[in-house]
Amino acid sequence: MNSFGKKYGITVIIVFGIILRLFAYFRGISFWGDEAALALNVLEHSYSGLFKGLDYLQVAPPMFLVMSKILIIDNLCDFTLRLLPLVAGIAAIPLFYKFVSMLSKNRVVITVSTFLFSFNMTAILYCAQFKQYSLELFTSVLLLIIFYKLIFEKEFKWYYPLLIAIAPWFSLSSLFIIGSYFLVMLIKNPGAVLKTYIPFFISFLLFYFLSLRYVSSCNYDGMYNWWQNGYGFADLRHPLRIVLRFGELFSFDKLKALFCGAIMLVPAFISLISNKKQRLFLGLPILLTFAASTLRLYPIEARLILFLLPLFVVIIAEYNWKFKNVCLMSVCIISFITSIFYTINPYKFYTSAREAVQIVENHIKDGEKIVLDSSYHRYYYYLHQKDNVIILKDGCEPYLEVCNNKIEELPAGRYYFILKEDPKKLFTSKVKVLDKYNLHSTVIYFEK
User: Fold this and answer.
1) Within 10 A of 368 (CB to CB), how many other CB atoms are there?
2) For the chain, does the N or the C end have fewer beta carbons within 10 angstroms?
3) What was the pLDDT predicted at 1?
4) Are 14 and 120 in a shared domain?
5) Mean pLDDT in residue range 79-108
6) 175 and 277 fall within a common domain
7) Cβ pair 284, 311 in contact under 8 A
8) Exposure b/e, 26-50, CB count within 10 A at least 16 = b
9) Residues 361, 339 share a domain
């Protein structure tokens, strides 16, 4: 590495990573389904209601929701709701650099780890979306720094237990980090266990009775069925599927994801059985998350394991650079190209919901109604509190006969039907299509 690279390489990587996140944020694409559903919960629930389980099959840490609701008191817009994930995602980059600099003194490991973290596709995408995963990533890095100091440097600060205690209120996935290092601290630094974990246990009891028990009873069955049907849980009978799920943290392309997953999981396994002092520190949270998934308690999906990204990138860099093979360079190239591509062309999430609603609002006349099907969240968020919206719920999809029947039950009049896809067969002879607008969403203007 030349003198410029040694002096400014890390700075260039961090700055470029921040620029990509800002670009994704200011691109300002329309809310997609999950974003809109979560935003509707923030709009429709009181502050206390945000602690007692959400509607529309959503789960998010309560303090993330409370802070978001505070932000939109005087200014409700997409950018305002996405501000907290942006700030958390940007702050996580220099914080991660601090973490990896504590963990390793090897300049190559530090540089490559920071590169993989800064240019990670999933981290960039969720930095610009109204979901909690960017805040969970920040919380994860912060906890890793705290536990490293507690376990290996035997350093104790009065605010460490407080930060650990409040972490689950901001990040549900932080429980994997906190739980993983409880046993490690019993072995490595038993003197600090009680004063570190007593505030956490008190806080967790409050968290459980005030929020977590409601979330479990409200959403567990629905979320379980959703992830079960989508193969979200780790199944030891299908190892390639497990590798793919972990690899999707770095790429949506299945072949690239399989490659990245293999490069992650093999070193992760080595880290658990090697003799290095970090073997449990790096591998245990991954192992605990994997165990929870095999027990059908937590799904493995890119956004849901984003909090493990700091561990994965360090493992990849630590256990691959020394072999001087092409694997490490390949993962770096895949991460860089994928992050650039999805930042510039985020088609995976793009629905043009805002644009579709704008078309309707520009053309709709008095007495005309707006019809939404079961994927209505992304559109209803932009139509919230309007009294001319009709929602066809209960499994109505544009391809199903039940949807046609519900449309025929509508009173005579003119309607704008907003759908996420252009239906092949929808209307009967009783309905006259007057106009159609095709974006990433479809708007059908009809009369019956």
Assistant:
1) 15
2) N
3) 53
4) yes
5) 94
6) yes
7) no
8) eeebbbbbbbbbbbbbbeebeeeeb
9) no
* Domain edge (last residue) among 344, 363, 388: 344
> What pLDDT, on the 0 to 100 scale, is given for residue 418?
86
Task: Supply φ then ψ for residue 427, to 5 degrees.
Answer: -95, 145
Amino acid symbol at 210: L
Q: Alpha helix locations (H) across 274-371?
A: 279-294, 309-320, 326-344, 353-363
Cα dihedral 415→421→423→428 (10° resolution): -20
Residue 430 reports pLDDT greater than 90: no
Q: Please report the pLDDT score of residue 214 as a whole number.
A: 82
**Domain end residue (candidates: 344, 376, 405):** 344
Candidate from 54-68, 72-86, 205-219, 242-256 with smallest mean pLDDT: 242-256
Instruction: Please count the CA atoms within 13 angstroms of the CA of 190 that sit on its side-chain side.
Output: 2
One domain for residues 127 and 187: yes
Q: Which residues neighbour 266 within 8 Å (Cβ) at sequence distance 6 or greater?
A: none
User: pTM higher than 0.70 for the full model?
Assistant: yes
Q: Is the Cβ–Cβ distance between 175 and 285 less than 8 Å?
A: no
As a whole number of Å, the CA-based R_g of the chain is 24
Q: Do 375 and 255 belong to one domain? A: no
- Over residues 383-403, the pLDDT tens digits come to 887 888 888 876 566 566 667
* C-beta separation of 378 from 351 below 8 A: yes
Measure the CA–CA gap between 86 and 23, rounded to whole angstroms: 11
Together in a domain, 168 and 298: yes
Examine the domain organization and report whether 164 and 146 are in the same domain.
yes
Going by their DSSP bridges, the two strands 389-391 and 414-419 should be labelled as unpaired
The count of domains in the chain is 2
Task: Measure the CA–CA gap between 126 and 24, rounded to whole angstroms.
Answer: 9
Based on the domain organization, do 435 and 328 belong to the same domain? no
Strand order in the sheet with 442-447: 389-391, 369-372, 414-419, 442-447, 432-438
Domain that holds residue 432: 353-447
Q: Is 153 exposed, middle or buried (0-12, 13-18, 19+ CB in 10 A)?
A: exposed
